Amino acid sequence: MKKIKKLLALSIGTVLLASSLAGCASKPATPEATPGTTAEATPEATANGEAKKFVLIVKSTGNPYNEKEAEGFKAAIEEAGAGEVILKAPAEPTAEAQIQMIEEAIAQKVTVIALAGNDPDALEPVLKKAMNAGIKVLSLDSSVNSASRMVHVNQADPERIGRVQVQAISEMIGGKGQIAVLSATSQAANQNLWIEWMQKELEDPKYADMELVKVAYGDDLRDKSTSETEALLKAYPDLKGIISPTTVGMAAAGKVLTDKGLVDKVVLTGLGLPSEMAEYITNGVCPWMYLWNPIDVGYLGGYAAMALADGTITGAEGDKFTAGRLGEKEIITAGDGTEIMLGDPFKFEPANIEEWKSVY
User: Fold this and answer.
1) pLDDT tens digit sequence for 257-276
2) 358 domain residue, yes or no
């Protein structure tokens, strides 16, 4: 155990290469998602002599996953001494709240805006305004449409993420019974894409005895996710499993199922933080789950932001840059835009959860 933690602290990249799937890093301190966090290293300057400003706007406050992303982003900029880091998080996960923050960033004449979008299309006018003002724009984790950004940092292959969760729940319930999905917001591009792939996986005849009864939305809020889980259980008394592709939903659903004594009656899987889900993996509510490393998502986003700022990349297919300890990354075409891929989801289960719960 000590050896593993030491290796993690020294080189997350080594662990990623040694794993059959990607993910996981050394345990960081939780950052405060507030504006004005400044790198300690001597910052690089823009052409007019001012320090470069890198803004990250996450989905909302109180979201542990977002906090880890912000920490990774900040660490990358500070590691390179590239400029000032400004971390922002709206009180609610809405496009309107993010639009206001983007307008503020434009007024501040920042160098780069990176964001996890709360809506794929609603942010387009203000992000175009930012780019027209000479600001580099990228999305990470939850994308905005391709007209709204120069490149997207993707945590893992969307098809693999969607399909593996259906495969997991099927194995857990023996391929028979009703299942439901507890998602984040109905506008979240990443969630919706994963759910599309879940539905495509369910088209396979081997799932003929499984029924997806509902996709519910907890809006990445703990209280609403809790009430949505309770509503699912009431509306579908024969429910056998819940897939929650959001860390907030996973933790909320795990608590509800535990408190109601539904271990071995309703199973849970999806995308969760090991630190939050260890209890539910140990007690059997969640036999296993998946996630990538949110710290590394933010870290990769930070290096992509710096590469855009200094012109190393433009967001075009084939562009390459070095992302610190993650090594060389190449921009690829995905859908109607371009993206940078972090890696595949990692499986967390009873055999390894004790090892990882203290990591992130």
Assistant:
1) 999 999 999 999 999 999 99
2) no
